[in-house]
Amino acid sequence: MNSFSQMQDKVRDVLRRDRTFNHTIVEENIFLQGTHSVHHNTLDASHGPVLYLEDVSVSFDGFQALNKLSLYIDDGELRCIIGPNGAGKTTMMDVITGKTRPDTGLVYFGQTMDLTQMAEHDIAIAGIGRKFQKPTIFPEHSVWENLELAMKTDKGVWHTLFTVLTSEQKDRIEEVMLIIGLQELCYARADLLSHGQKQWLEIGMLLMQDPRVLLVDEPVAGMTHQEMDRTAELLTSLAGKHSVVVVEHDMDFVRSIASQVTVLHEGSVLAEGTMDEVQNNQKVIEVYLGE
Ligand SMILES: Nc1ncnc2c1ncn2[C@@H]1O[C@H](COP(=O)(O)OP(=O)(O)OP(=O)(O)O)[C@@H](O)[C@H]1O
Ligand SMILES: [Mg+2]
Q: For residues 14 and 11, what is the distance between their CA atoms, to the nearest angstrom?
């Protein structure tokens, strides 16, 4: 087994990757901007979108990565974002998660949380979870332990794995394991999972934080067709309870989750609608043919 300090390093590595952890959620039902006292239950999305981007611009050394981008994501919706390479899709996620600050524009989570004023860590705590393309799991730990660690990493791996879980915590792990379809691999080491199973485990780890919004960048890259179908089912099943924003290049996959599609091009929205609508949109056809 690894030494305690090696395990601590892994925990730190996960923390660096914008992860959210329950231990950091304070119990008070308050939101104080600029402090650590944020709680996703304070989100007010009662009169509008859960995510609200208006006229957002970002430039890198004069290059306009986002150009007056406006995007509205409703509570519980599943939205796919497509667009050619360099369209600004990842930059858009970076802006939502506080990794990149916009030069101009509004970025709100619900009605009251100005994401441009919040630290990355606080945005994650407030309920925006992000899945990166490379899974960040604990390879030497089991599926169950990975979910457990995602739940309460504050105590350190050692302490977490030797602390007795409450029945609610066990129920939540069971529930998430069922959602991601890994219940039969409960005791399997994470590094022995297939590529697809690792991706689902990471989605499960995000779910342990109970995020209101899940941002998923290119989830099916490198997956088999079967894994892609399962991922489509999984993401579709998460919508409703969570808002799910999926950036993906694979058009068959986007079609299979049959959601609203937003096409980005040169940092702004080129078209929005169903997959059929955007695929028949003349501007979209021109952009993709010109690639
Ligand atoms: N930190 C940065 N510094 C300089 N330029 C950047 C930076 N991040 C992104 N860019 C540029 O901004 C543009 C938009 O990049 P972004 O990664 O958002 O595109 P994307 O739509 O995610 O593309 P892909 O489909 O290839 O992932 C690209 O031209 C990219 O080179
Ligand atoms: Mg990208």
A: 5
pLDDT digits (tens, 9 = 90+) for 83-116: 999 999 999 999 999 999 999 999 999 999 999 9
User: Is the CB of residue 235 less than 8 Å from the CB of residue 213?
Assistant: no
Q: Rounded mean pLDDT of 13-17?
A: 44
**CA distance linking residue 254 with residue 96, whole number of Å:** 22
CA–CA separation, 262 and 53 (whole Å): 13
| Ligand 1 atom having least distance to the Cα of 84 | 25
Grouping H, G, I as helix, E, B as strand and the rest as coil, residue 149 is helix
Per-residue pLDDT at 289: 73
Best CA proximity match to 208, nearest among 182, 161, 170: 170
Distance between Cα 131 and ligand 2 center (Å): 12
Ligand 1: lining residues by beta carbon, under 6 Å: 60, 63, 65, 83, 85-91
- In the reported structure, the alpha carbon of residue 65 is separated from the centroid of ligand 1 by a whole-number distance in angstroms of 6
What pLDDT does residue 168 have? 87
Gap between the Cα atoms of 239 and 211, Å rounded: 12
| Strands of 132-289, DSSP E | 213-217, 243-247, 260-265, 268-273
Rounded distance from Cα 271 to ligand 2 centre (Å): 18
pTM for this predicted structure: 0.83
Closest ligand to Cα 86 = 1
Buried b (16+ CB within 10 A) or exposed e, 87-115: bbbbbbbbbbbbebebeebebbbbeebeb
**Pick the residue with more confidence: 20 or 146?**
146
Give the chain's length: 291
Ligand nearest to the CA of 96: 1
CA–CA distance, 217 with 134 (Å, rounded to integer): 10
Nearest ligand to the CA atom of 291 = 1
